């Protein structure tokens, strides 16, 4: 890994430029995710500022962008709706504490056990949920709303062909906001949904009673937020690792996310995590080091202080259009091919993850269910043995252990054998435990009763050891 | 002769034809080396990481795309090495070729994605325009 000096100052020009681009692209997203969570836009903007600022120092993956995200916003919806903002700040702090504990316990290693299928399901359901969250803001409001959403989409997809330096969503926002102000059309604006205050965030203790009851309320949300935040952050760090051809500290990132969330909670922000889209934009714009993340956070705050008045005038349909673009970018479009080509079990795990998330509106439940389901599929898969008959030779394929012995015995019970001796070939199999040895013995007895001698061949040395430990009961000795 | 030949490869049919031409040129002299360059596209990073799980698996998947070319060079007993870069294919190949001061660059005329080509223009065209060394585009 690079030295700390390299991580900070190895790419000053590229980092400053890309940080500015990211800050510009972050504004609409931070606002939109605040609206999804049901809080004032400032909560998401403050969170994006503190997350980026702290992660620049505490993160494990230089060049990765963390801020307020859709995945986290979706999890906190019921908490904000039922208990209010102060509980959200307390939950954010607790989220950070849980993530630091995960980091210390080296939980990033466990992330390797999250199968691809679950990860693909995660991003797909995230995209679907963000899209569903936009529906109330543009369906059945007015014709002009549809028109503005459509124009926004056309702009964000065609502009990048001609203008590469300034992010297309920002150009779309500025032009369409100006048009909306001067053309006197009836459109809902961000100001209708919340307020923007042009002040720096300040340190505040969440106004919640310090009681067991509070903990009972916030803990389930904090745990979900901690899991979702780490899943998205570790996926993002893998993507940044790949794009930059470098490695990063995954457990360090988990701790960094925790520290950033604690600070964010104390400064009146909502829990956040790494963002796939923004991190890709950062690397593509030349960002590689910690400086890029720091500049993104600082410049974002600067823009809010300067432009706060104008932000409230942004028409909602424009923001909706940008969020639809974010959904399209988040969704894994190769999933359709995956559903056809991937093994059945993987396809089912992916679909189940998506269905559970869309059903429960909770990404963490989806991830956990997906992991459990694929673990079950894995056990089922390794607990089936296949037996192929070639003349008098029976070739066993698969692992022979407590979970697979039933199928093994059943096969030999039901088969009709004419000859006096048969061979059971273990070259593609292994006997793992006493149950496996027992099953083999049982088959030998079963066939012995019918006057058939069994010869066991091609046992590998671990299997022989297991049999020898049981005192050479099998005739293979 | 051309000592350091850069072959831009993307796993397409065209890249294999380009490899054959590069092999012909390299075989003219004993000290020629072909550097097979594959650019892992930034646009595909998210999808590739999602579908591969570990970085080792992803690396193997990328090397597999160059398998036929490597085989060809082994059969023809041509010195070669493989370099995997990360970026946007056209500009990244140009940057690398100019930085390494290669003697010749060989590219296929058409890559994998015809739709993208229609929208953005072809990689080979970009390379031809901006590279500082002689370039051979293979049809």
UniProtKB/TrEMBL annotation, chain B:
Keywords: Cytoplasm. Gene3D superfamilies: HUPs (3.40.50.620). Residues 1-139 form the UspA domain. It is found in: Cytoplasm. Pfam families: Usp (PF00582). GO terms for cellular component: cytoplasm. InterPro entries: Rossmann-like_a/b/a_fold, Universal_stress_UspA, UspA. The keyword Cytoplasm applies. Its main location: cytoplasm. Belongs to the universal stress protein A family. This is Universal stress protein. It comes from Lysinibacillus composti.
């Amino acid at each position: 890994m690079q030295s700390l000096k390299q991580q900070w100052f190895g790419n000053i020009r590229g980092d400053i430029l890309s940080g500015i681009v990211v800050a510009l692209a972050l504004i609409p997203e931070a606002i939109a995710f605040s609206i999804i969570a049901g809080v004032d836009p400032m909560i998401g903007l403050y969170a994006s500022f503190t997350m980026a600022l702290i992660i620049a120092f505490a993160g494990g993956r230089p060049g990765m962008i963390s801020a307020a995200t859709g995945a986290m916003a979706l999890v906190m919806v019921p908490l904000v709706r039922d208990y209010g903002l102060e509980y959200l700040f307390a939950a954010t702090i607790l989220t950070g504490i849980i993530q630091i504990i995960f980091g210390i316990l080296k939980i990033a290693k466990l992330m390797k056990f999250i199968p691809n299928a679950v990860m693909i399901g995660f991003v797909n359901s995230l995209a679907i949920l963000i899209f569903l969250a936009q529906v109330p803001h543009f369906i059945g409001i007015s014709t002009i709303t549809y028109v503005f959403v459509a124009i926004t989409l056309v702009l964000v997809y065609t502009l990048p062909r001609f203008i590469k330096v300034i992010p297309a969503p920002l150009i779309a926002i500025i032009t369409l906001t100006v048009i909306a102000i001067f053309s006197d059309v009836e459109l809902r604006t961000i100001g209708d949904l919340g307020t923007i205050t042009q002040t720096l965030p300040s340190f505040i203790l969440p106004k919640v009673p310090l009681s067991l009851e509070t903990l009972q309320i916030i803990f389930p949300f904090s745990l979900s937020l901690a899991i979702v935040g780490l899943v998205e952050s570790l996926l993002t760090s893998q993507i940044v690792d790949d794009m930059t051809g470098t490695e990063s500290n995954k457990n360090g990132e988990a701790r960094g996310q925790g520290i950033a969330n604690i600070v964010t909670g104390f400064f009146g922000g909502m829990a956040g995590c790494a963002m796939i889209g923004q991190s890709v934009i950062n690397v593509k714009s030349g960002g590689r080091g910690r400086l890029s993340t720091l500049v993104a956070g600082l410049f974002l705050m600067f823009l809010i202080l300067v432009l706060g008045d104008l932000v409230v005038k942004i028409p909602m349909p424009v923001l909706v259009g940008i969020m639809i673009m974010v959904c399209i970018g988040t969704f894994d479009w190769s999933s359709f091919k995956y559903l056809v080509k991937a093994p059945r079990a993987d396809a089912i795990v992916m679909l189940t993850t998506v269905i559970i998330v869309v059903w429960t509106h909770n990404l963490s439940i989806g991830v956990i269910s997906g992991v459990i389901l694929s673990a079950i599929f894995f056990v089922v898969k390794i607990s089936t043995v296949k037996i192929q008959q070639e003349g008098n030779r029976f070739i066993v394929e698969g692992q022979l252990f407590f979970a697979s012995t039933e199928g093994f015995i059943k096969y030999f019970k039901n088969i009709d054998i004419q000859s006096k001796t048969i061979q059971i070939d273990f070259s593609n199999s292994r006997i793992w435990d006493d149950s496996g040895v027992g099953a083999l013995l049982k088959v030998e007895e079963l066939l012995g009763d019918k006057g058939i001698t069994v010869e066991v061949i091609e046992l590998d040395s671990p299997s022989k050891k297991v049999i020898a430990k049981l005192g050479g009961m099998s005739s293979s000795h | 002769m051309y000592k350091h030949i850069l072959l831009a490869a993307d796993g397409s049919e065209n890249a294999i034809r380009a490899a054959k031409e590069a092999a012909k040129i390299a075989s003219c002299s004993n000290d020629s080396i072909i550097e097979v360059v594959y650019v892992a596209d930034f646009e595909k990073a998210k999808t590739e990481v999602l579908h591969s799980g570990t970085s080792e698996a992803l690396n193997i998947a990328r090397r597999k795309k160059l398998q036929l070319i490597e085989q060809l060079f082994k059969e023809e007993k041509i010195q070669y090495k493989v370099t995997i870069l990360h970026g946007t294919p056209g500009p990244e190949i140009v940057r690398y070729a100019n930085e390494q001061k290669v003697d010749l660059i060989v590219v296929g005329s058409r890559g994998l994605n015809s739709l993208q080509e229609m929208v953005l223009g072809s990689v080979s065209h970009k390379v031809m325009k901006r590279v500082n060394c002689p370039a051979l585009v293979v049809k």
